[in-house]
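Tutorial, part two.
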Amino acid sequence: MAGTVTIKINKNMKNLLLIMTAFAMIVAISGCRKKIDCDATVTWKNCTSDTIFYNSDDFSCSLFNAKLPPGQSVSKSVGHIEIKNGTQSTVTTYFECSRGSFYVKVEECNVVQEIH
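Running the prediction step on this input gives:
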């Protein structure tokens, strides 16, 4: 014969279960924080229909010595970045070209920045 089992949970037990559930959720969410530790690279992509002129030796220099045709990209290592446990060590990099001056704060290991 099948019977029904009834479990009575008192108020203290309910509170304990709520606290344990909340703690488990906090632990799960805290493990999802962004953790980055790498040598970062920025890629500048020419999304215009014109050739862009830039300096291949120093992207922040306005003495242009190189061409970036439409649809092409150029990449450069910008150094070490680290984002862990609420602390950040990031880089802001600049790109001077015939279309103007651009910059990006690098917070990922590989960043693609489009020039329009």
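Residues 36-115 form one domain. In part three we will examine how such features are distributed along the chain.
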